[in-house]
Specification:
two-stranded parallel sheet, 13 strands, globular, binds 4'-deoxy-4'-aminopyridoxal-5'-phosphate, NHTrfase_class1_PyrdxlP-BS, aminotransferase, pyridoxal phosphate binding, EC 2.6.1.1, PyrdxlP-dep_Trfase_major
Length: 400
């Protein structure tokens, strides 16, 4: 008898399943809108030219392959914090503890583990309903109790702001609340700046602890400062936030696994204590983080010319997505597709919750070779000038 004979097969990952079905389809018209990675105007993966230039500079400098410190590459973590927090007061007074992480997921996991060990209140975290599918698993495996707050209104395909506020009001004081800093995944629906200000006040009143997940800075609006509004507002309002950053989307460094986790401390002395404990959390998990991607990001963030190039490339990616939203909206309305489609344009970031039902998504897969998750979420980056008309017509037919 095998040692593992009692191990049951786990369910397949719902998003990777979409890719499997897509791969198995032999139609030349097929479109994969499941995967959350940017594609260029020809549907191809895109390596940013600022990233290529940074790699050339790095290679020319003939770097070694020694271990990084447990907390990562100092020039990278410093620049990552600056990108996120800007001129925020805690950063200026050296009161932000920051460590490198294995992309955004790793940052969430370090945060979860740290809160599990040191958060001085009940260890419950509230995440939006719906949220990125991995949030529940990451925080549960970190030892936190995961609960939900209302976020999305199916009827309006928009933010359920009243429901969200009601749920925040009924959370026990000193709970942890996870917020998507921008480009909410999977809905593409974000609070407005005015709503963020209200949320910041409410979260302060209720003495909740905000944990920001910022996986799309710059990628949402095309502007890294605009996308950091919520985070920076909360910090300037005096919240001691936790922050998970990812450079997967905004630098196209998916597989390089570049990210950072940070905590706002009271002062430099507290920051040093937090960093010492973050290292103790990290050391037994993976000892120290990977080198190459952090060097790329650091080269870009610390070189004036490359930084400017990168900002315009992020803007280019965001704008291509925004233009696809406009074209999809115009097409659907032009085809007299039943229903309101304004949400396609008002949503932001990689994803759009189309409002398509599960049977409609099945019909699209079977009849039109178009693949998306069963909740009707599409990756906008999978659309381009070559397939948008076919996609729009297929959706219009599926809805009629
Ligand atoms: N948070 C959110 C909301 C995301 O959408 C993602 C990427 N899908 C991540 C975190 C983490 O991604 P990564 O680990 O690749 O940085």
């Amino acid at each position: 008898l095998s040692t593992w004979s009692a191990v049951p097969a786990g369910p397949p990952d719902p998003i990777l399943g979409v890719t499997e079905a897509f791969k198995a389809d032999t139609s030349s018209q097929k479109i994969n809108l499941g995967v959350g990675a940017y594609r260029d105007g020809n549907g191809k993966p895109y390596v940013l030219s600022s990233v290529k230039k940074a790699e050339e500079l790095l290679s020319a400098s003939n770097p070694d392959k020694e271990y990084l410190p447990i907390s990562g590459l100092p020039e990278f973590t410093k620049a990552a914090a600056k990108l996120a927090y800007g001129d925020a007061a805690p950063l200026k007074k050296n009161a932000v503890a920051v460590v490198q992480s294995i992309s955004g997921t790793g940052a969430l996991r370090i945060g979860g583990a740290f809160l599990g060990r040191f958060f001085p209140h009940a260890k419950a975290i509230y995440i939006p309903n719906p949220s990125w599918g991995n949030h529940t698993a990451v925080f549960r495996d970190s030892g936190l109790e995961v609960k939900q707050y209302r976020y999305f209104d199916k009827k309006t395909v928009g933010l359920d702001f009243a429901g969200m506020k009601e749920d925040i009001k009924t959370m026990p004081a000193n709970s942890i609340v996870l917020l998507h800093a921008c480009a909410h995944n999977p809905t593409g629906v974000d609070p407005t700046p005015e709503q963020w200000i209200e949320l910041s006040n409410l979260i302060a009143e209720k003495q909740l602890f905000p944990f920001f997940d910022m996986a799309y800075q710059g990628f949402a609006s095309g502007d890294t400062v605009r996308d950091a509004f919520a985070l920076r507002h909360f910090v300037s309002a005096g919240h001691q936030v936790a922050l998970a950053q990812s450079f997967a989307k905004n630098m196209g460094l998916y597989g390089e696994r570049v990210g950072a986790f940070s905590l706002v401390a009271a002062d430099a002395e507290e920051k040093a204590r937090l960093e010492s404990q973050l290292k103790i959390v990290i050391r037994p998990m993976y000892s120290n983080p990977p080198l190459h991607g952090a060097r790329i990001a650091s080269t870009i963030l610390n070189n004036e010319k490359l930084y400017a190039d990168w900002l315009s490339e992020v803007k280019g990616m965001a704008e291509r997505i925004i233009s696809m939203r406009e074209r999809l909206y115009d097409n659907l309305v032009g085809l007299n597709t039943p229903g309101g489609w304004g949400h396609i344009k008002s949503q932001i970031g990689m994803f759009s919750f189309t409002g398509l039902t599960t049977p409609q998504t099945q019909k699209l897969a079977e009849k039109a070779h178009i693949y998306m998750t069963a909740d009707g979420r599409i990756s906008m980056a999978g659309l381009n000038a070559h397939n948008i008309d076919y996609f729009s017509e297929s959706v219009s037919k599926a809805v009629k």
